[in-house]
Structures are given as structure tokens and as C-alpha cells.
Amino acid sequence: MEPVKDHLKENLTVLFVGFNPSLRSGETGHHFANPNNRFWTILHRAGLTERRCRPEEDADLLSIGYGLTNIVARPTKSAQEITKEEYNKGRLELKKKIAAYQPQVVCFVGKGVYLQYSGRKEAAWGMQPASVVPGVLDFVAPSSSGLVRMRMEDIVAIYKELSLFIRKLQSKQKEE
User: Fold this and answer.
1) DSSP per residue over the chain, as a string?
2) Is the pTM of this model over 0.90?
3) Interior CA angle at 112 toward 72 and 115, to 5°?
4) Which of 76, 98, 100, 113 could lock onto 108 through a cystine, CB 3.0 to 4.6 A?
């Protein structure tokens, strides 16, 4: 099964980073394609997209300043199948991508993704006090997997913080 293609370009507003593609994403070639994954619904309900997009439209996010990648490229049934070696390799590759493309914010879709990336032992939801890559803000959000036991309203509320932050950032940039 092939890795799912990254959707990246320079100076993105937000780069969303997942653990790794699901088997369904590996089959279709699109991010967050598992029908039980709530990523597309969360983005819409949080005000990050005007409507609920479909996985087949993942590349279209580039036109609104959003990119997509994963810390590990290999599709698996669950994140528990990812090896320590894959995380180590993925962490280094992800840091290189972020440094090269310089998104304004990296949104980690899952606290575990951020902890693997940053090497930190803990993190709060939302904007992190210190960034891993200088000049790029780190935002930690819950995983959108249907296996997550948080209430949907609570997950959406955290993503709404990102949406509000982006609006303020864009408003400030227009003033400059």
C-alpha cells in the first residue's frame, strides 16, 4: 500500500499533521478517508472550512492555506502499529518539512502526534508555549479518530480556538 501524498506548499496558514494514514486512506490515496474519522466534520463545525469537505477534496485545502501530512507515512489499521523506529524517522522528516515550508501554525491532530514529534512528556490542548521549529507555532488538538472518547462538542471547541486564532492572525496581517 502506497503512502498518502502530502499536500504542502510554502507559507501555509495551517499544516495539519496526523499520526499516519488509515488503511482506507492508503486504499483511496486521500487523507482522513476512514468513514469513522471525524476530521472533515470537525473542521467545518469549528469554522475552519465553509462546508464539510470530503476526503477526495483534501488537495483543495491548499487553496485556503491548509496543508496535510503525517508523522509516519505507512498506512496502518491503528496508530498502535507504528514502530519506535518509524516515529524516530518520521519526527526528523517532519521537522525538515516544517522548516522548509514554514507554515504559520502546525496543528497536531492528536496529542500523541505532538508528543512523538516534540519529544515532550506532556502538552496541554491548544497553542504551545514553545515551538519546536523557530518561527512556526505549534497547536495541539484532539485526534479526529472515531476511537477518541472525548465528546464531539469538546473536540470542536478546541479546534474553534485554532479558527479564532487564525482569524486574528489574518486580520492583523491585513492591517500591516
Assistant:
1) -PPPPPB--TT-SEEEEES--BHHHHHHT-TT-STT--HHHHHHHTTSSSS---GGGGGGGGGGTEEEEES--S-BSSGGG--HHHHHHHHHHHHHHHHHH--SEEEEESHHHHHHHH--S---SEE-SS-SSTT-EEEEE----TT--S-HHHHHHHHHHHHHHHHHHHHHHHH-
2) yes
3) 95
4) 113
pLDDT tens by residue, 50-86: 999 999 999 999 999 999 999 999 998 888 899 999 9
The percent of residues above 70 in pLDDT, for the chain, comes to: 99
**So what's the pLDDT on residue 12?**
96
